[in-house]
Structures are given as structure tokens and as C-alpha cells.
Write a structure and sequence with these properties.
With 199 residues, the protein is mainly α. The chain has one domain. It is 62% helix and 2% strand. The protein has helices spanning 2-5, 18-35, 45-74, 81-106, 111-114, 147-160, 171-198; strands at residues 127-128, 167-168. Strands 1-2 form a two-stranded antiparallel sheet. Helix 3 packs antiparallel against helix 4 and helix 6 (147-160) crosses helix 7 (171-198). The longest helix is centred in the N-terminal third of the chain and has 30 residues, at 45-74. It is globular.
Length: 199
């Protein structure tokens, strides 16, 4: 979905090399969908590396797209309020999806390491969910976060610009959370303000 939305963004915020980028993103996405179309049943370190690489690439390109939008705004390019709002929505939603995938793939060694059905060593937690701290009627040893939990953390990071109920424990997750919050803050504060001024 996010890859498809790139075709709808204004030319002013697309890097010149974006068609090649979309081709790379599709090439990275195809093996992930082909090997695990409905459920996590094929565990391979290469697939996990591809998933992390794709999400990191999306975040990097998203930051580049935000910088391009700022340059277009400074140069007073002909961007309507609708184009600004649409571009901001694309940048913000891409930021949340890419952050959620990275949280999902990095926390405790990835989804296969967290799933007791697979014989993978689970690494120390990168995120401290409330269910792991003694929530009534929840066994912290048996509870495992789903993708929705990681998407929620990414969404709250992108709207509150800070952790809410789930705290980052490792340096890499703190840096990732700061980067995601910074992109969302810049998008909402600057792009939305400019769009309101135009209106």
C-alpha cells in the first residue's frame, strides 16, 4: 500500500531516482510475500534481513521526501494546500508503517524468536509492554505481542511524539523512536501549518 501511494505524491517531493527505488522496494517485497503469504511459517535469517532492510529503506526515503518537501516550501514552489496535506499524510503514514515493521522485526530477535513454536533463542526485550510488568490476569511469561501491539506503539510515537504505555529499553529502539517522532513532528508542525496558511 505504502509503495503504491508514492505514485500519488507531487513531483516536487519525489527524488529523481524514485522509480528505481520503487523497483528495489518491490523486489524486496516479493520474496517476503511469496515465502510467508498468510502466516509466519518459513523462518530464514535472510528473509528477516530483507524485511528489516525494506523497512529501513522506507524510513530513509521517507526522510528524503520530507526534506524535498521542505525545500519546495522554502523555494515557494506551486504547492496547493491539498498537495501539502496529501504529501504530509503520505509521509506520516509511511513513517508509522515502517516504524511498526522495524519494531516487529527487531524486538527480542524478531517474530520467530518470540514465538515459542520455533526453536529460536529469544533475545532480551527491546520494548517493555505493560503486559510484561504484572497486569492482572495476564501471565508475563506466556504473553507475546502481536503486530497490532507494535503498530500501536508506532502510531502513538507518531502522534504523541514520545513513548506512551510502552517504553524502549535498548539504544537502537530509543534512536528509532526518536527518529520516528522527529519525522512526525516536523511533518505535522511545519507542513500542516503551511497548508493552513495557504487556506
Amino acid at each position: 500500500m505504502i509503495i503504491g501511494l508514492q505514485f500519488a505524491s507531487p513531483d516536487q517531493i519525489e527524488p529523481r531516482w524514485w522509480p528505481a527505488l520503487v523497483a528495489v522496494e518491490v523486489l524486496l517485497l516479493v520474496p517476503l510475500v511469496a515465502t510467508n503469504p498468510l502466516s509466519l511459517d518459513r523462518d530464514h535469517p535472510l528473509l528477516r534481513a530483507v524485511a528489516v532492510g525494506l523497512a529501513a529503506l522506507l524510513m530513509l526515503v521517507n526522510g528524503t521526501r520530507l526534506a524535498e518537501l521542505f525545500v519546495a516550501m522554502v523555494h515557494k514552489d506551486n504547492l496547493s494546500a491539498a498537495a501539502l496535506i496529501g504529501s504530509g499524510a503520505l509521509i506520516w503514514s509511511t513513517n508509522i508503517v515502517a516504524t511498526a515493521v522495524l519494531f516487529w522485526e527487531l524486538d527480542r530477535g524478531g517474530p520467530f524468536a518470540r514465538d515459542p513454536r520455533h526453536r529460536r533463542r529469544e533475545l532480551p526485550a527491546d520494548l517493555l509492554f505493560p503486559q510484561l510488568t504484572g497486569v492482572p490476569e495476564v501471565d508475563p511469561k506466556a504473553w507475546r505481542p502481536s503486530f497490532v501491539d507494535y503498530f500501536f506503539v508506532a502510531f502513538t510515537t507518531g502522534t504523541a511524539f514520545s513513548p506512551t504505555d510502552t517504553m524502549p529499553l535498548t539504544g537502537r529502539l530509543k534512536i528509532l523512536m526518536m527518529a520516528a517522532a522527529l519525522v512526525s513532528l516536523a511533518t505535522i508542525a511545519i507542513v500542516a501549518a503551511r497548508a493552513v496558511n495557504i487556506l
